From TrEMBL:
UniProtKB keywords: Coiled coil
Entries under Pfam families matching the protein: CENP-P
Organism, as annotated: Vidua chalybeata (Village indigobird)
The name this protein goes by in its record: CENPP protein
GO cellular component terms, semicolon-separated: chromosome, centromeric region; nucleus
Keyword Transport: no
Domain of life: Eukaryota
Amino acid sequence: MDEGIFQAYEDEIQALEEEIRLLTEKYEDMQQESNFFSDEEILKSINSFQRETQGETKGHESPSDLKAQLESLEADLLFLTEFTGFHFTSHSQKTVEKTQNGTVQKHKLSGKCHSLPFQLEFQLLEMQNNEKVSAVVSDLSIVMESTEDSNVSKFLSRTEECGDILTFFRSLSTYAEWYEHRRHTFLHFK
């Protein structure tokens, strides 16, 4: 047989082995996440879901009510997007560890503030003590395009060290708004 045919088969075998490896990892992640929940938590969730669905079937909201509710939510979202300048394009969350003391989750968030794209990756440790929930951000990583300004790079480094997401969003909002004003002004003079 031709060596090219053997190479094609070898390539196909390698691609299938890689797909099997990825699917196995995904399956193990799902198994690991499901192992974090006790039987009692699962039963509570099932009972809660059943109560919610029974309540919904008794209420029988009409399609027009649901449509009006959806339109109201879309209007609120549009208002908040225009007001803050933030438009989130993706978010993913993965539970890394779950114990009785707390939960560690890994978050990935991306979007734009006005015209500046950004990406955040961080771990969030949520701990519950006597009906009080506290959250701690760690391993914050911020990626922004067009950070020619050294002050912005310094700010991003300090924010990553402190893990202060709120300050990042507040500062990014102001910076991006003025960045847009400067850009429009310079375009006017060109």
